[in-house]
Design brief:
Elements: E1 4-7, H1 11-24, E2 32-36, H2 44-57, E3 64-67, H3 72-85, H4 94-115, E4 120-123, H5 133-147, H6 175-185
Parallel strand pairs: 1-2, 1-4, 2-3
Helix pairs in contact: 3-4, 4-5
């Protein structure tokens, strides 16, 4: 039976991925490592809330649950590099910042898989209705090519699956998405183009 690493962003998406892997008979839960490594999540209290929900939901999980330290510097370093390479890089544009965020986390999952000789990597990012699944696939395939470890996207993911009974976040995770969410809630225009004049 194959051993795999599942990068997990939250409990909700974690459940969707586990159910998809089970439906397809890809591996047993005991052969899975759930890796919670999300340096993008802001602030620290939000990171802890999502981590706690994951721990509570998977308290009897027969596989392994790995909780990485909260290291926002890793996320911001990625953003800074992109800004230095491209002066037009705009953090308020999701098409700019989101792939950088996904890359940080997927890279970490492949690094873990390589260190522990795992058979495949996947991420709960592909279970979300709010992520660009095609772009996540491109990033996953990029690191798969670099490491020789397959990137797996189950075909039977139910992205509309309803889950309940634990903490659920109301924004994607990074500080930029939090500001955008607050802007939407209070009908405030936070777009850069209206403030650079």
């Amino acid at each position: 039976m194959k051993n795999g690493v599942v990068h997990v962003c939250c409990a909700d998406c974690g459940l969707k991925m586990i159910h998809a892997l089970e439906k397809e008979g890809i591996c047993n839960q005991k052969n899975l490592t759930l890796l919670f490594d999300n340096p993008n999540i802001h602030p620290a209290q939000e990171h802890l809330a999502r981590q706690k929900a994951l721990q509570e939901m998977f308290i009897e999980f027969p596989g392994k649950v790995v909780l990485a330290n909260w290291e926002p510097d890793r996320y911001f370093a990625e953003i800074r590099v992109l800004q230095e390479k491209n002066l037009q890089f705009d953090v308020w544009n999701k098409k700019n910042r989101c792939p950088a965020c996904w890359a940080v986390r997927i890279r970490s999952a492949f690094s873990y898989a390589k260190d522990f000789a795992m058979d495949f990597v996947t991420t709960t990012l592909v279970t979300s209705q709010y992520q660009d699944i095609d772009e996540v696939r491109v990033i996953g395939k990029h690191f798969s090519k670099k490491t020789g470890i397959p990137f797996l996207v189950p075909a039977l993911i139910d992205r509309c699956e309803a889950t309940k009974g634990f903490y659920k976040q109301n924004y994607c995770g990074c500080m930029f998405s939090l500001v955008e969410r607050m802007g939407e809630k209070y009908n405030i225009d936070i777009s850069r183009k209206n403030h650079d004049k």
